[in-house]
Structure formats: structure tokens, C-alpha cells
Design brief:
The chain has 157 residues and is of the alpha+beta class. It is built from six helices and five strands. The protein has a three-stranded antiparallel beta sheet, with helices on one face. Strand 2 and strand 3 form a beta hairpin. Pfam families: Amidase.
Length: 157
């Protein structure tokens, strides 16, 4: 269900964040950076139909990930697909010519754990050629928080 991850992530996160920040956004919108304010305002305009569709898809994703986690102990994956970009850079152009917003790139790989509610942990595993940190994400089964924390501690040593 990978092709649905981004839509479900944004379909849940944006309206939920908008609901949480609603009072502050209405009374003192200037407290928010322009890019955040735009997302929160967009979330207020999403329909209940879209939100419920994302919720239903989340349920299907949880079922599939639960099945997957019956066959593996832990998933190790990159935390983000790119290290830090310069301040003000709004997009990333990949080697195949695909362009992705920095926000989408940064949440894309953590979205499955966020959507499914599975425990995840990011640990530092080195640096790129510019000295920027590289993180590895560990995803475990439901209730596997202790295993992830122990593994993360071992990796950091």
C-alpha cells in the first residue's frame, strides 16, 4: 500500500493539526510561520469524506503492517531520504528528475510508522560527506518499544 502512504499521511496529519491549533490559529495567526499557517488553514478546508477515507485506508495499512511484523523482528530503514537542506530550499530534485517538496521528503519514510502506530526510533549512524548526520529508523511490532530502545542503545554504543 506504499502508493497511498503520502495521501494518508497528509489526509490525517493536516486536519488533525488544524483541529489542535484551531483556537490559536484564529486568534493569533502571526505566531505561525507562513508555510505552517498555510497547511493549518488547508486542513480546516478538508472534507469529512476525505478524512474518513484516510482513516479507512489507515486501518487497512495497519492490518498489512501487522502481518508484516509477524515475519520480522525489526525493520531498519533510512530515517529521511536526504540530509539537511539549506534554509529556504523548498524542494529536492532526485537523480531521476523527480521533484519533491522538502516537507514531503522529510516525512515520507517515517509516515508508515506514524500512520500505523507502530513504535519507531531514529538513531544516528554516521555522517555524510558534508558532516551532516545520517539517521537510521527502526520500526518494531506493536508493543515492541523495549526491543527498539535496547537495539537503539546498542547501535549508539
Amino acid at each position: 500500500m506504499a502508493r497511498y502512504v503520502q495521501a494518508v499521511q497528509w489526509g490525517l496529519m493536516v486536519p488533525e493539526a488544524s483541529a489542535y491549533h484551531e483556537q490559536t490559529l484564529c486568534s493569533v495567526p502571526e505566531l505561525y510561520a507562513a508555510d505552517v499557517r498555510v497547511l493549518l488553514e488547508a486542513g480546516r478546508r478538508m472534507t469529512a469524506v476525505d478524512y474518513l477515507r484516510a482513516q479507512r485506508t489507515r486501518t487497512l495499512m495497519r492490518q498489512e503492517w501487522s502481518r508484516l511484523m509477524e515475519t520480522v523482528d525489526v525493520i531498519a530503514a533510512p530515517a529521511v531520504p536526504v540530509t539537511a537542506v539549506p534554509v529556504g530550499q523548498e524542494s529536492v530534485t532526485w537523480p531521476d528528475g523527480t521533484v519533491e517538496s522538502v516537507a514531503d521528503a522529510y516525512v515520507r519514510l517515517s509516515a508508515p510508522a506514524n500512520i500505523t502506530g507502530l513504535p519507531s526510533l531514529t538513531v544516528p549512524v554516521g555522517e555524510d560527506h558534508a558532516g551532516l548526520p545520517i539517521g537510521m529508523q527502526l520500526i518494531g511490532p506493536a508493543g515492541g518499544d523495549g526491543v527498539l530502545l535496547g537495539l537503539g542503545q546498542a547501535l549508539e554504543r
